[in-house]
């Protein structure tokens, strides 16, 4: 759940999209700011930038090639990954989605948080024992990871203390690669990390073709929504232990709302991170909301009322304009919004446009969202 909150409320350290060196003339980034790629003769250099919240001037560089003996002396001291990889351990459902989209789900031999996985194929492989849950954070099962002997382990960090885990894995001889896709500012920036993962499977053309389709679809939908005259005011989230971690006005969440033709109630805030607010201050603005999206674990309007009776007095609740992104969720709690929704921001955007402007998307059927009753 923590990754879900961060993914919705946070963005990268910078809103700018820097120029990017092309890879093989096609697989370069147009939106993602968290990694850089360059082809250098017989190998590929991949650099991941500032891969956890508030990190600054932090980078990790990896060398990808099929043979280490052909590498020049100048890069032999850098972490090397033999590609294409065959066995992968990943610690995020987002990574699972990227790898699955590339058609490489069978390469995943270990993951973190089996109950949070939605993919039917991955779940079947967990039941059969071909995929092992390796734990999370301080409960990471290092012994199991060593036994799995992966070609690469994809790791992410919310805070800098993840470096301790990184060093432990390196001591055990596990090739580890940092990922920071959840920090991206733009929905397409997060999806564009599929190009990053494709480098490890030698599937760059496939990733580029896929992303080009998503990019085009997203832009067409944004253009459709930009023509509206009236934008509904949008409330998002739900309080956690009397604190409402509201998405900042410069956040990933705010961008999605804007692109879908909504008017985010906190768009006057310049923060790119989640803002801790008390319920009273949120309630004062919430009275103006025309739509409420992503209310946490709520499955009904009654669930919202149980948190605070005042919520039931809000116009947005009384008119039933509350939508949650949990249409595709399995019995164990795995939510496909945090898997395929990551690589298909165009489908998320289509859902939100239907929520905000149903007449524009009359023929669209919700993929991730549902109206709470």
Question: What can you tell me about this protein's structure?
Answer:
The chain is α/β, with parallel strands linked by helices. It is built from 14 helices and 16 strands. The strands form four sheets. A five-stranded parallel β-sheet has the order 7-6-5-8-9, with helices on both faces. The chain has a five-stranded mixed β-sheet with strand order 12-10-14-15-16, with helices on one face. α3 links the parallel β6 and β7. The two termini are 23 Å apart.
List key phrases describing it:
single chain; 373 residues; alpha/beta; five-stranded mixed sheet; 14 helices; 16 strands; 32% helix; globular; disordered N terminus
């Amino acid at each position: 759940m923590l990754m879900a909150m961060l993914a919705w409320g946070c963005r990268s350290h910078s809103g700018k999209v820097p120029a990017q060196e092309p890879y093989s003339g096609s697989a370069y980034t147009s939106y993602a700011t968290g990694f850089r790629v360059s082809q250098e003769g017989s190998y590929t250099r991949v650099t991941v930038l500032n891969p956890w919240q508030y990190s600054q001037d932090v980078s990790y560089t990896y060398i990808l090639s099929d043979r280490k003996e052909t590498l020049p002396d100048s890069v032999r001291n850098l972490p090397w990954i033999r590609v294409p990889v065959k066995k992968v351990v990943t610690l995020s459902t987002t990574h699972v989605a990227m790898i699955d989209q590339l058609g490489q789900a069978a390469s995943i031999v270990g993951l973190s948080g089996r109950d949070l996985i939605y993919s039917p194929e991955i779940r079947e492989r967990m039941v059969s024992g071909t995929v092992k849950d390796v734990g999370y954070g301080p409960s990471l099962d290092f012994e199991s990871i060593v036994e799995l002997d992966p070609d690469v382990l994809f790791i992410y960090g919310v805070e800098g203390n993840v470096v301790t885990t990184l060093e432990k894995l390196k001591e055990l001889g596990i090739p580890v690669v940092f990922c920071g896709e959840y920090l991206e500012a733009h929905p397409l920036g997060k999806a564009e990390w599929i190009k990053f993962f494709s480098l490890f499977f030698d599937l760059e053309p496939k990733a580029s073709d896929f992303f080009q389709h998503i990019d085009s679809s997203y832009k067409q939908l944004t253009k459709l929504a930009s023509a509206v005259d009236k934008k509904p005011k949008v409330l998002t989230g739900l309080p956690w232990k009397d604190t409402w971690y509201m998405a900042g006005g410069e956040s990933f969440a705010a961008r999605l709302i804007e692109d879908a033709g909504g008017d985010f109630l906190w768009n006057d805030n310049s923060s790119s991170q989640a803002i801790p607010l008390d319920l009273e201050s949120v309630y004062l603005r919430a009275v103006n909301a025309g739509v409420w999206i992503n209310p946490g674990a709520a499955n009904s309007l009654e669930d919202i009322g149980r948190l605070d009776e005042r919520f039931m007095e809000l116009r947005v609740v009384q008119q039933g304009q509350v939508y949650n992104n949990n249409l595709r969720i399995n019995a164990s709690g795995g939510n496909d919004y945090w898997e395929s929704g990551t690589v298909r921001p165009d489908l998320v955007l289509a859902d939100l446009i239907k929520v905000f402007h149903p007449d524009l998307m009359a023929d669209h059927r919700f993929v991730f969202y549902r109206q709470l009753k």
